[in-house]
Amino acid sequence: MLFAFTEDQAAITEAARGMLIESCTPADLRRLLANGEAIDKTRWQTIIDMGLLGICAPEDKGGLGLSLIDFVGIAEAAGYVALPEPLIEMAGVVVPLLASLDDKGWLARVLAGEIVAVGHPANPLVSEADGAAAFVLSSGDDLHLVERDAVTLTRVDSFDPFRRLFCADWAPSAATHVNGGWRQTAQRGAVLAAAQMLGLGQRCVDIAVAYAKDRHQFGKPIGCYQAVKHLLADAQVKIEFARPVVHAAAIELPLGSPAAKARVAHAKLAAAEAADLAARTAVQVHGAMGMTWEVDVHFFLKRALALKTAWGTPAMHMAQVIDRMTALPTGPEHTFAASFEHG
Amino acid sequence: MNLEYTPEQRAFRLEVRAWMETNVPKERLPSFDLTREGFEAHRDWERKLSDGRWGMVTWPEELGGRGLDLIRWLIFEEEYYRAEAPTRVNQNGIFLLGPTMMEFGTEEQKQRFLPSMAAGDVIWAQAWSEPGAGSDLAGVRSTCARDGDEYVLNGQKIWSSRAVFADWAFGLFREPGSERHKGMSLILFPLDAPGVTRRPIERMDGEKVFAEIFLDNVRVPVADRLGGEGEGWKVCMATAGFERGLLLRSPARYQQAAKRLIGLYERHRHELPASMAERVAQSWMDADAYALAIYAMCSRLAAGGTIGPESSTNKIFWSELDMALSQTALDILGPRAELAEGDPERWLDYYIFALAGPIYAGSNEIQRNIIAERMLGLPKG
Ligand SMILES: Cc1cc2nc3c(=O)[nH]c(=O)nc-3n(C[C@H](O)[C@H](O)[C@H](O)COP(=O)(O)OP(=O)(O)OC[C@H]3O[C@@H](n4cnc5c(N)ncnc54)[C@H](O)[C@@H]3O)c2cc1C
Q1: Ligand 1 pocket, residue B126 CB under 6 Å
Q2: Which residue out of B250, B253, B301, B376 would a mutagenesis test of the A interface target, given it has the greatest number of A Cβ atoms within 10 Å?
Q3: What distance in Å separates the CA atoms of residue A179 and residue B17, rounded to the nearest whole number?
Q4: What is the predicted pLDDT for the residue at A342?
Q5: Own/partner pairs, A26-32, CB within 8 angstroms, 24+ separation
Q6: How far apart (Å, rounded) are the C-alpha atoms in residues A258 and A251?
Q7: Rounded to whole angstroms, how far apart are CA atoms B370 and A40?
Q8: Which of A59, A206, B77, B184 shows a CA-CA span of 20 to 30 A to A239?
Q9: Closest partner residue to A213 among B286, B290, B379, by Cβ?
C-alpha cells in the first residue's frame, strides 16, 4: 500500500508538465485561433520527440510499457493548459486500444504522430477527426479500423473552439473488421477526462486567485474579502478531494471489476463537479470581466463543460455508482477495489 | 503507487478483527457525557484496549503502543469502526495531546504522561477556548504567573469536551501582561487541583458534553508546561494540525456511517423516490474520497512529508460530509426522524453532533480563511 507517486512517476510528469506550461499559454491558444490553426505543429512534434505518445504502449512496440497511473499526471497537466493537441486521446486511449487489436501497423504510425480517431458508442461525435489518418469505429459489437478516405465527415461546431467534432459516415465491411473489442476504452477515456478536469479546475482557481490579488475595489484587492476567499477555498477543497479518487481510479481500472468500474465513475463525477465549481467560481470572482472573451477563463470552462459528458454522462456514472453501492459490500474495510479480489 | 495491502497488513487486519469480535461490548455503553457511570464504563473500555495493546498502535512499545506505521493505524481504525466499538473517551489525549507530547515533550514528561494516557488511567480534556477567545484563540486571557518553580493559573475556560468527568486538562495560558501570540504557554493541570471549579454546560439535547473550567490561583509545577515558555502558540498549532488534519476524525468513522446509511436506505427503499439513491451514493462516495485522501496523506507522511494547510481542507470536507450524511438519514426517516424513540440507530443524535462539526476544531469559516491565505496566497483581510 503506497498511495503516492514514485520519483520516476513524478519525474515523467514534471518533464511533460514543464513543456506544456511553457509552450501552451493562453496567448498561444489565442494565436492559434487567430490563425485558424487547429493544433500547434511544433508542439505536436515536441510531444512526439519526447516519447509522450508511447508512455502506455507496450515495450516491444516501441513504447515505455507503463500504466495509466503513470500517465494521469500528464493528463492533469494537459487540462491545466487546455491543450489543443490530442496527446491524451492518442497516448491514453488510442494507443492502448490499438495495442489490444490487430492494429494493421497503425500503432507504430500513431507513435510517429499520425492520428487515429475513435468513434466510441459513449461519445455521439468523433473528435479530432479532421486530422485523422484512420478511425476505430464500431458497428454493433464489432470494431472496424477504417482509413480516412472511406469515411465522410460532417463538422459539428463545439462551444470549445479547440474541440473539432464530426459526424462520421461509413460502411462496415469484412476488410475493415478487426478482431477485438472496446474492453476498457471508455473507462480509460473517463479517467483521463477526469484527470484533465482536475487540471482545468485548478487553472480556473489559479487564474481567479491572480485576478483577486490584482483587482481593487473599496480601496483593497478583492482577494482580501472573505466572501471571495471562501468561494475560492471551496473550489480548492473540491479539487483536493477529487484528485485522490482519480488517482485511485487510474490504478484500479485494470482490475475491471464492478468495484473498479464504480471508482472510475466516481472519479469522473467528482472531477466534473470540481471543475464545474471552479469554473463558475472563476467567472464570479472576475465580475463582468468573467463573462468576456478577453479573460482566459472561458478556454478552461468550455473544455470542462465538454469533458463532463465525454466518455459517459454524469447520470450514467451515478447509476454505475449506485449499482455497485447496492450490489457489493460497503464499509471501511472495502475502501479499495482490490479488497474484493482477496475476499 | 499501489493500492493493495501486503499480506502482513491483511494479517494485521484479521488480528484486529478477531480481537474486536471477542472484546467489543455487545450492548452499547451508556453515554460518557451523561453520568459518571457511563464515563467510567468508557474508561474501562480504554483499559481493555490498552491491555490488548490497542490503545494507540502507532506509539512506541515502551509507551504502551505497538510502534506501527500510519497505514496500520488506518487499518486498525477501519476495524474499530467496523466493529462499532465505543467512542474513545480519551480522544483528546491520544489523538491530540499524545502526538503533541511526542513532538514537544521532555523524556521525563513522555514517561510520566503517555503510558497512563494509553492505559486510560488518565482521561484528558482540552482547555483552550474562553468566553472571549473562540475563533480568535490568540485572545485568551487566562494567565500563568511564574512563581519560582510553579505557575499560578487564573481565569476561565469554556467548551471543554468531556471535562465534566475527565482527570487532567491541557490548557492555553499567557504570562500576565503579554499580548496575542506572544507569551503563551501550554500547561497541564489536574482537574481536581485546589482552585479548579468545573461547571457542566448542557448541549441542546441535555447531554453535558462540555464544561466551563474556572481557575482560581491553581498552582502547578513548571515541569508540567509542554514546550518552551512563551511557545504555547506554536505548540497549539501543531496540535490543531493533528486535530483537523488526521487523527481526530479517521475516515473509517464516515465509511461505517455511510454503510449504515445505505442499510437504512435499503430498508426504506420501497417508500422513497429514486432521487434518494443519489444522495445516499454521494455520501458514500464522499466518505470513500475522504478515506483515499487520508491514505494519500499518510503515504506522504511516511515518506517524510508534513501536514500543512491541507489539514484545513480535510476539516471542511469531513464536517460537511458528516452533516450531509446525517441529513440524508433524517430525510429517509421522514416523520419518524423527530421521534425520540423512532429510530434505534439514533440518527437524530448523530445529526445533532454533526451540527457541531463545522464549529469545533476551528470553525469552517476560519479554515476557509486559512486555505485562501496559506494555500492560495490571497492577502490577509
Ligand atoms: C462540540 C464542541 C466541542 C468543543 N470542544 C472543545 C474543547 O474540548 N476544548 C476547547 O478548548 N474548545 C472546544 N470547543 C470550542 C471550539 O473550539 C470553538 O467553539 C470554536 O473555536 C469557535 O469559537 P466560538 O464558539 O467562540 O465562536 P466564535 O469565534 O464566536 O464564532 C462565531 C461565528 O463567527 C464566525 N467567525 C468568527 N471569526 C471569524 C472570522 N475571522 N472570519 C469569519 N468568520 C468568523 C465563526 O466561524 C462562527 O460561525 C468545542 C466546541 C464544540 C461545538
Answers
A1: yes
A2: B376
A3: 48
A4: 60
A5: A26/A296, A26/A299, A29/A82, A29/A84, A29/A162, A29/A299, A32/A84, A32/A162
A6: 14
A7: 40
A8: B77
A9: B379
Provide the mean pLDDT of chain A: 97
Tell me, in angstroms, the distance from the centre of ligand 1 to residue B263's CA.
Answer: 34
> Quick one: cell of B12?
494485521
Average pLDDT of adjacent 10-residue blocks, chain B of 381 residues:
95 98 96 95 97 93 92 97 97 93 95 94 97 97 98 98 97 97 98 98 91 98 97 92 77 98 97 96 98 95 86 96 98 93 90 96 96 97 83
Take residue B116 and report the three cell numbers written for it: 497512563
Ligand 1 centroid – CA B359 distance (Å): 5
How far apart, in whole angstroms, are the C-alpha atoms of residue A4 and residue A42?
33
Mean pLDDT of A30-44: 96
Kindly report whether the global pTM for this prediction surpasses the value 0.95. Answer: yes
Residue B305: the pLDDT is 86
Portion of chain A with pLDDT greater than 70, in percent = 99
Whether A251 and chain B come into contact, CB under 8 Å, resolves to: yes
Output the pLDDT for position B53: 94
3-state secondary structure chain B: CECCCCHHHHHHHHHHHHHHHHHCCCCCCCCCCCCHHHHHHHHHHHHHHHHCCCCCCCCCHHHCCCCCCHHHHHHHHHHHHHCCCCCCCCHHHHHHHHHHHHHHCCHHHHHHHHHHHHCCCCCEEEECCECCECCCHHHCCCEEEEECCEEEEEEEEEEEECCCCCCEEEEEEECCCCCCCCCEEEEEEECCCCCEEEEEECCCCCCCCEEEEEEEEEEEEHHHEECCCCEHHHHHHHHHHHHHHCCCCCHHHHHHHHHHHHHHHHHHHHHCCCHHHHHHHHHHHHHHHHHHHHHHHHHHHHCCCCCCCHHHHHHHHHHHHHHHHHHHHHHHHHHHHHCCCCCCCCHHHHHHHHHHCCCCCCCHHHHHHHHHHHHCCCCCC
Task: Calculate how close chain A gets to B277, using CA atoms only, in Å.
Answer: 7
Contact between chains at B378 and A241 (C-beta distance less than 8 A): no
The span from the CA of A301 to the CA of A305, in Å, is 6
Catalytic sites of B, residue numbers: 243
Q: How far is A124 from chain B (nearest CA, A)?
A: 25
Smallest CA-to-CA distance from B320 within A102, A240, A171 is with: A240
SS3 A301: helix
The residue type at B253: R
Angstroms from A250 CA to nearest CA on chain B: 10
Residue among B217, B227, B231 nearest B178 (CA): B231
> Is the CB of residue B111 below 6 angstroms from any atom belonging to ligand 1?
no
pLDDT at res. B309: 87
C-alpha cell at B371: 486555505
* For residues A159-165, average pLDDT: 94
B192 Cβ below 6 A of ligand 1? no
pLDDT, tens digit, 9 for 90 and up, residues A73-132: 999 999 999 999 999 999 999 999 999 999 999 999 999 999 999 999 999 999 989 899
Evaluate if residue A343 carries a pLDDT over 60. no
Tell me if B303 sits within 8 A of B371, measured CB to CB: no
B117 class by beta-carbon count within 10 Å (0-12 exposed, 13-18 middle, 19+ buried): buried
Q: Within the 333-372 window of chain B, which residues sit less than 8 Å (CB to CB) from chain A?
A: 365, 367-369, 371-372
Whose Cα sits closest to atom 35 in ligand 1?
Answer: B365
